Amino acid sequence: MASVQDQLEIKFRLTDGSDIGPKTFPAATSVATLKESVIVQWPKEKENGPRTVKDVKLISAGKILENSKTLGECQSPLCDVPGGVTTMHVVVQPPLEKEKKIINKPKQNKCVCVIL
């Protein structure tokens, strides 16, 4: 059986101040898995929800967490109190495809010809 220290209770704070969770995760859980959990639990009534792991950034103790890291590797001794709930902030990035389309859109040259 895993000890209490091997389990972390986390809630995810959305930009509007609402929360997802708290939920308990093993310390070996990857940040990418946490992001998948956020996507699955995202409130259906909220617009602009994330569709992929790449759409989500998780911030804990002022640091953006890397997908390849585990919860245990991301723990902060100052912020994560054993037995307490850790709050991670969720930032959803807008899809880059729309921005690329705007940037790559060919510009039309307008010529004004004046005949004298």
TrEMBL record:
<dbReference type="InterPro" id="IPR000626">
    <property type="entry name" value="Ubiquitin-like_dom"/>
</dbReference>
<protein>
    <recommendedName>
        <fullName>Membrane-anchored ubiquitin-fold protein</fullName>
    </recommendedName>
</protein>
<dbReference type="Pfam" id="PF13881">
    <property type="entry name" value="Rad60-SLD_2"/>
</dbReference>
<keyword id="KW-0449">Lipoprotein</keyword>
<dbReference type="InterPro" id="IPR029071">
    <property type="entry name" value="Ubiquitin-like_domsf"/>
</dbReference>
<comment type="function">
    <text>May serve as docking site to facilitate the association of other proteins to the plasma membrane.</text>
</comment>
<dbReference type="InterPro" id="IPR039540">
    <property type="entry name" value="UBL3-like_ubiquitin_dom"/>
</dbReference>
<keyword id="KW-0564">Palmitate</keyword>
<dbReference type="InterPro" id="IPR017000">
    <property type="entry name" value="MUB"/>
</dbReference>
<keyword id="KW-0488">Methylation</keyword>
<keyword id="KW-0472">Membrane</keyword>
<keyword id="KW-0636">Prenylation</keyword>
<dbReference type="InterPro" id="IPR040015">
    <property type="entry name" value="UBL3-like"/>
</dbReference>
<feature type="domain" description="Ubiquitin-like">
    <location>
        <begin position="8"/>
        <end position="74"/>
    </location>
</feature>
<keyword id="KW-1003">Cell membrane</keyword>
<dbReference type="GO" id="GO:0005886">
    <property type="term" value="C:plasma membrane"/>
</dbReference>
